[in-house]
Amino acid sequence: MDLKEAQARVDAWISQFEEGYWPPLVNLARLVEEVGELARELNHRHGAKTKKPGEPEQDLALEMADVLFVLLALANEQGVDLSDALERTLEKYRVRDSTRWARKDGGKDALIDGTGDPNP
Fold first, then answer.
1. What is the DSSP string of 76-112?
2. Rg from Cα positions in the chain
3. Which run of H or E residues covers position 24?
4. How many C-beta atoms lie closer than 10 Å to residue 63's C-beta?
5. Residues in contact with 75: Cβ distance below 8 Å, sequence separation at least 6, in sequence order
6. In angstroms, rounded to a whole number, what is the distance separating the alpha carbons of residues 40 and 110?
7. How far, in Å, CA of 117 to CA of 64, rounded?
8. Could you tell me which of 77, 112, 76 has the C-alpha nearest to residue 92?
């Protein structure tokens, strides 16, 4: 599913309830909470903090999807088209960072847009 469809599906889910979208700062708090849960799981897997005895491993993909869901909800509530925003961000990185790190391909320009055109 692409970002436009994801935003539409989140909107359809939230819009079926009378309460609708939560205020932006509530959704921001939710986003921070979900990122914290993702951080906790990554820390358990790759950091120094081990799980408590009997504490189950969480599904990393679902933790990431929880973050994405809240971000999609926040974008919807704020009227942000995340597809457009991501395109602009990828272009910003392509222009700003194309020579910042050593390339695996011997110096060819990054083809972030997937078209094969280094200058979309």
1. HHHT--HHHHHHHHHHHHHHHHTTTS--TTSSPPP-T
2. 19
3. helix 24-46
4. 19
5. 7, 81, 82, 85
6. 33
7. 31
8. 112
Taking 70 as the pLDDT cut, the residues of the chain under it are: 106-120
CB 88 within 8 A of CB 22: no
Which residue type occupies 18? Answer: E
Q: For residue 4, give the 3-state DSSP assignment.
A: helix
Per-residue pLDDT, 52: 87
Instruction: Round to whole Å and give the CA distance between 23 and 76.
Output: 11
Q: What per-residue string of b and e applies to 91-101 under the rule 16 or more CB within 10 Å gives b?
A: eeebeeeeeee
Closest CA to 20 of 29, 30, 28, 10: 10
> What are the tokens at 116?
């094969």
Instruction: Say what the pTM is.
Output: 0.82
